[in-house]
Amino acid sequence: MTDLATLAAGAKAWPFEQARLVLEHYKRAPKETVIFETGYGPSGLPHIGTFGEVVRTSMVRHAFRVLTNDTIPTKIICVSDDMDGMRKIPDNVPNREALEPYLQRPLTSVPDPFGTHESFAHHNNARLCAFLDSFGFDYEFKSATALYKSGAFDAMLIRALERYDAIMAIMLPTLGEERRQTYSPFLPISPKSGRVLYVPMKKIDPAKGTVTFDDEDGEEITQTVTGGHAKMQWKPDFGMRWAALGVDFEMFGKDHQPNQPVYAKICQALGVPPPVNYVYELFLDQKGEKISKTKGNGISIEDWLKYAAPESLALYNFQKPRTAKKLYFDVIPKAVDEYLSFVDSYQKQNEAERLENPAWHIHAGNPPVNASPISFALLMNLVSAANAETKEQIWGFIRKYAPDATPQTHPFLDTLTGYALAYFNDFVKPTKQFRAATDKERAAFEDLIKRLDAMPAELTDSETIQADVFAVGKEHGFEPLRDWFKALYEVLFGVDSGPRFGAFAAIFGVRQTAELLRRGLAGEFLKA
Predict the structure, then answer these.
(1) d(C-alpha 26, C-alpha 284), whole Å
(2) Which residues of the chain have pLDDT under 50?
């Protein structure tokens, strides 16, 4: 059997491409542990982008472990930028006016408006960890405030003072003329107000590790940059953090791409090679516009998880990460069924093919067996045809089709039935548009009814049923044949497309399907 690491060396899936770059980076400067980093801004709650960044990073990390036969220790660190000053008060917090005195204070110094944690940042950090834990991510949480105050950044902050001119030479060309006059890569914390100060430095002293600046009241202050008495501007902070934590890989959205060279140059100026970076495209809304939390024009992770399992969202993040994709409710059913298709095909593939299968990456090399023998689209047709309101009603049909399947033996399918009910009721049912059959279609429907009635009532062979459905369409002159299937779905389900009709009839039952056709011909669905 071929060694997986050997196969991984030639695998084309993008996590392996990135893993090989990380391995090259490691070989140039071997170290004890390879660090994969993700960042988090704790001024808001974790969101669908947070999930995407961590799930993708986890895929690259697993690919790296396989590539190296797991001989090099690795870990993912999730760093919260909780020492940033609170620039504005979020709209979604209670008692907003009570936070006004804390503007520009580090988020870890802002009281928790929800009254449950030590600070606003602690509240959101806890939400982040609970969020990541709920998906079973393997990561190590780090607070920027704790890193600054504990001394973890001290050595690199002193080095930044020593390389102050080099850092300024990197930063100044990126700034407008007015801001150049007052810019400093260091942001001291006011000893009086506790605010993060955006002020120019009057003097720096690398030997003493201090900076001199005017406080808000005009008094000249000299204080150390270590121990949490200062932080760095966000672009220098990016590079300094990479250097201090020894980061080997970090991905981020396309909005960071223009600044990536700046982050890397800062890291190099501090004497450390920058990590491998992977830039992914941002999600778009239904109109093709960039999703914005402020606009609320996107789909939230809570929205997705109301209608589909996280595995389907992981797949959506895996597929073409460097292509801008629309993220709205209509993409959910397709993502679910594509996920099921990849899981099903995995069992029929050889080892090399499996490494290219998204299911391998989603499940860290161990996809489930037989996640669901029934597609999401088919389940929604069952909900429609049976007028089902509960999972138990759907399971009544499933048991006839797959007698050995139970909610206990197929928990994913059981969960999927609940998602199908929710999605159908919220998105499919309100948009259904039934129509009457034409004379040509009526004759074909009647022919299909006769064929279904002639079949054994217990028949569950979808291919046999599909062959007859196909034959009816051909014999009644539907060209293209898609028009025949479109007619079935428009008359019976009020939609213009769906899964294989034979598969639906096999699960719903040939007698029940024949009755459904009769009801469609009688125009019952038009009256609903």
Answers:
(1) 35
(2) 1
